[in-house]
Amino acid sequence: MLEINEHRTLEEEIVYFIFDSILNKKIQAGIKLSESVLAKEFNTSRDVIRKAFSQLQSMGILKYKKNQGFHVVWLTKEDTKDIFATRKILELGIIQILTQMHAKNELDLSLLNQSVETEEFLKVSLRNGEYVKSSCDFHLNLALLTKNDYLINALKPLIALSTLAALIYDNQETSFCSYDEHKVVIKAIESHDIENAKSIMYQHLNHCVESLDFDIKPSKKINLIFGK
């Protein structure tokens, strides 16, 4: 049985476990998840597993097919571009709000700078799964700084899907969601030039998509097996 974090509910622990397994490439896009295997691993009922699966389904990470169960979604090139097109709309608004806040002395960017330092450390340490997640989380952290629940809740599932897309189409020769570009984004906020900040964010999101390798094909695996 797996070790459980006492600060999380069991459903939350299962969600974290699956997401982390995706990040670490132990679970690949397109595969079917086994309720019975997970129930045994967590020493719980299949009803609890289904509730956790439903949470991941609401995030867009899992897809349910009648008589086929839950599968990790396989995002196509078109899906990925649609996700980033939607993100542009939201994040250009977010960057405008943050630039205005900083100009009014209403924004502390110290934690954001620390998160970029963490990204750089993970990249240099070749911890790619963690790096991809931390890089995507940078954008969610920008939304959190606005303290606007509507923007945060709208962006959150798109960040999760972007992370999955990055892991599906990861190109080792390029840098997805570069921490160097994140440093430039922070500098743009500090400059108080709204149009320049929006332009830099737009270019950065374009670079994220351009760094992906859309020639990668779906995995043939259909079952989730742990410990092997």
From TrEMBL:
For this UniProt record, give its keywords in alphabetical order, as a comma-separated list: DNA-binding, Transcription, Transcription regulation
The superkingdom listed in its UniProt entry is: Bacteria
Which SMART domains does this one have? Answer: HTH_GNTR
User: Pfam families recorded for this chain?
Assistant: FCD, GntR
Q: Does the keyword Transcription regulation apply?
A: yes
User: HTH gntR-type domain location, by residue?
Assistant: 8-75
Q: What is this protein called?
A: GntR family transcriptional regulator
Q: What species was this sequence derived from? A: Arcobacter roscoffensis
